Amino acid sequence: MEVADPVEGHTSRTVDQSLINLRMHAVEMGGLVIDQVGSAVKALIDRDVRLAELVLSRERMVNDYDARLDRDSLTFIALQQPVANDLRMVRAVARAGLELERVGDESKKIARFAAQIGAASAHDPVVAVARALRHMANLSVAMLRKAVRALDEADPALARDVLASDKELDREFATALRQLMSFIMQDHQFLKATIDTVFALKGLERIGDHAKNVAEQVLYMVEGEGALRAGERG
Amino acid sequence: MQGETSAQKTETPSLSIVLDERRVAGANPPKATAEKLDFWYGTNHALKNINLVIPEYQVTALIGPSGCGKSTFLRCFNRMHDLQPDTKYQGAITLRPDNVNLVGPETDPIEVRMRIGMVFQKPNPFPKTVFENVAYGLRLRGVGNKTELAERVEKALRGAAIWDEVKDRLNDSALALSGGQMQRVCIARALATEPEILLFDEPTSALDPIATAKIEELITELRQRVTVLIVTHNMQQAARVSDFTAFMYLGELVEVDATSKIFTNPAKKATEDYITGRYG
Asked: What is the distance in angstroms between the Cα of A156 and the nearest Cα belonging to chain B?
């Protein structure tokens, strides 16, 4: 079936506008959580407590976006009783909101760690895996950005790009874990900080999974059931 | 059910293959099958090559914009068009199990109407008592025994979920009932002669939401006893009551599939545009 932008062309302009608003809020929320991820990791690597606190203070905004998407999608379903691609779109946006809210949670945890870790020493776990942290943050932010753009533009090709890039993030996570294991075997005094660093790395890996889930929602929104080819669903 | 689904995209396989595949998708064996059905009002070619299987004891909804031919198609089943001059059928609607062609010139329309009941948009009880409305068809069929008549009238009224409301008013005029009650008496009237297929032509468009919900609940129950074909402009009604939905446009059958599939992920863009309100 011909794929068209799912928000346009209704006889009722109210329906067009409601769908445009829903999608716009999801995309705005995406922009905010992308910044949260980047800032949280930067705060951790740079030991920037003020930046970490900024991330923590904006967590509430992320939750407000999620609550608004949840409420607006429910209202749309109740008032307009959408079917077919309208229904798939509303579901995709609501679920994307949920995924983005979880990305916000992961950023919050990293920021909390950044706010508490204290000054850097020449030999601490965050310094040991700083390159991996930065790389994983870049990868997960790129995946998120692509997933949110795919949602905005209803673009299944972009969504498939996101699914394909998750493996690299997983590989980077495994490498960083090995580095941390070597690190802790050499020096036990940073055990708590090392565990927290593992959680930060795991958080970034999970953010990749959330980006993937958003991309899967976009595929379902645009192409419907059976959109995911064998091997894509993970 | 019909050839335009994914089951039959490549070639035009024999009907039996299509039916087998539809059965896997949740369709019962066919009660009636429209094959290469064409219909004309004078020179107006109103139905074009309709191929559709109506599964037994299930509800099939016909949807589509005004003038798409859905009511015309419905009325072919009980030969209502015979009452109009200058109309022409071509092709067949085969009724199982005896394979009688409902639109064949050799088939007596009165016999057809004995087997296929119909409920209309506007409740249209006869200006008689509730009892006589339901007994009318039975008397025509020669049921004269008072006890049997009373039993069968009660059974039909119970079947139409109206018995409790009218059991003490059987000798009142049916025209004194509410719209929703009148419609259910009309359904009882149609059920009394135990039709094999019940046709509904926009049965709730003149009713309030509560009366509509009662009729919809009734249609859901009726499928245990009778095959149902319903025309509706109300998308949500088609979604709520039917097992299969057929979308018609400009006299053609565009798509037919399980209702859950049509309303979440239709195969044709025309169907999606219509059900999401993007037409015109």
From this structure: 16
